[in-house]
Amino acid sequence: MSGRLGFLPIPKLEIGISAAGGKVVMLDSADNTTVLQRGRDYAVLGTDISYKWNGLDLRGEYIQQQVSAQSGSVVPQAERWKAWYLQGAYRVRDTNWEPVLRYGKFTSPVASQQQGQLAMGLDYWFAPSIAAQLEYEINHAQSGSGNNNNLFTLQLV
Questions:
Q1: What is the distance, to the nearest Å, from the Cα of residue 50 to the centroid of all Cα atoms in its chain?
Q2: How far apart are CA 71 and CA 99, in angstroms?
Q3: Any residues with CB less than 8 A from the CB of 121 and at least 6 apart, and which?
Q4: Beta bridge partners of 10
Q5: DSSP state letter for 147
Q6: What is the distance between the alpha carbons of residues 35 and 136, in angstroms, rounded to a whole number?
Q7: pLDDT at 31
C-alpha cells in the first residue's frame, strides 16, 4: 500500500508527504524463483518540497526505507537507508536553457554504498515534459567502492 499527499500552502509552493509499506521476499540470485525468506516488513517514508517563481525552481526531497528484523535470516537485524537532495535550477528568460545545481547524500547500512554527490548541469527543454540534460557529477564515497568516480551524463528525459 502506498500514497502521497501534496499541500499547496501558498501559490507556487508544494509540500508532499509519501508513505509505502509491504512485505519483503528474498529470492535466490541463481534462479530468481526460489524463495529464501519471506515475511519481513518494509516501510518507506518521504517528504518533498518544490517552489517555483519567475524561472527559479527550488526543490528537495528526503526519503527513508526500512526493513524489519528477522531472526534466522542471513541479515537478522533491521536495516535502514536514507537519501536526500536539494536542487536549484533557473530557466533563462526567453530561452529553453536551464542551468541546474544539486547536492545530495545517500546513507546505507553498508559503508561502501554510502555516497555524497554534487552535480552541475545544463538542461535544454524541447517541450514542457521533454528535455536533454548534460550533467557533471562529483561523487564522494568510500575509496575503492566504485561509487567514488566522477562522471559526465547526457540523457533525454
A1: 15
A2: 49
A3: 99, 100, 101, 102, 133, 134, 135, 136
A4: 13
A5: S
A6: 40
A7: 77
Residue 73 pLDDT exceeds 70: no
β-bridge mates for residue 38, sequence order: 25
pLDDT digits (tens, 9 = 90+) for 80-99: 899 999 999 999 999 999 99
Q: How many Cβ atoms are within 10 Å of 34's Cβ, its own excluded?
A: 10
Residue with cell 518533498: 48
Q: Note the maximum CA span of the chain.
A: 61
The cell for 46 is 518521504
Query: Rounded to an integer, what distance in angstroms lies between the CA atom of residue 6 and that of residue 1?
Result: 17
CA dist 124 to 95, 119, 156, Å? 9, 16, 10
C-alpha cell of 133?
A: 540534460
User: How far apart are alpha carbons 25 and 28 in whole angstroms?
Assistant: 10
Q: For residue 119, give the nearest of 141, 108, 130, 104 by alpha carbon.
A: 104
DSSP secondary structure letters along 13-78:
EEEEEEEEEEEEEEE-TTTS-SEEEEEEEEEEEEEEEEEEETTEEEEEEEEEEEE---TTSSS-S-
Q: What is the pTM of this model?
A: 0.81
